[in-house]
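job 3f2a | input accepted
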Amino acid sequence: MSKEVSKVGKKRVSILGCGWLGFALAKRLLGSGITSEVKGSTTSADKLDKFAAAGIRGFVIPLNPDTGLDADITGPFFDSDVIVIAIPPRMSQNVAGNYSAQMRMVADAIRQSPATEVIFVSSTGVYRDLSQTAFESDVQLPEHSAQPEMVAAEHAIAALRPEKTVSILRMSGLLGYNRIPGKYVQGQKDMTTGDIPVNYIHRDDAAAIIKAVITQGVQNETFNITAPFHPTRSEVYVDSCAQFGWEAPTFKTPETPPAFKMISGDKFFKTYSYEFKYADPLQFHYQLEDL
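job 3f2a | predicted structure (291 res):
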């Protein structure tokens, strides 16, 4: 490929929510040669120096539906080819309707922008625990979901179609580096969920998959993003505790087996070419300090 063609093919990417996943994605994109510029948003000005040091053009963008967005800031931020929205809702702290209102506000800004492709990072938490395999088509409306607010947010962004091409990526539980499953359950006694399968994705794969979608082409579809292997919680908890010398939790068999879900990633596998770095959660890389 000639330098001229290569330069023409490069994309400007804006990452709304350049946090634990978004920052890792930004660094991956900057090192890939497929972008001409990467922008990242934060709600804290303290992070701007970190962004600049990594080569990311930083923006402070608070998402307050009551005050709206500052067009003088969001105009330059959304002036990109691809918008990645990676802002997880704070479900435990969130006022009902706030997250979907934030996403409607974001959608209005994107609608006025030159961006042609949008990737919305959602969650497989939208699926109810029905003790069966969960497919993308199982949840299409908020009332079908365990997280109606998240599905309403998906709809707000999907409403950009057909003017924009919008992919919804429902991510399984994000782990890796300093997010270690055993850390959150060490020493617990008589857990009753040890036999249910996990649905996890390592951050390295999550970021690389978003890059693959950008590179291979955003599609107007919803995809589950999950590691293809689903060991049990007890296996994952005991193994990750052992890695760091923590006291492993203990388990007991409940009288009534707890409900669960197993996320299917088949639709993504059939659509995109991607080889997992960490296909098995029992092989995830962890460390006490984040990168």
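job 3f2a | The chain has nine helices and eleven strands.
job 3f2a | closed
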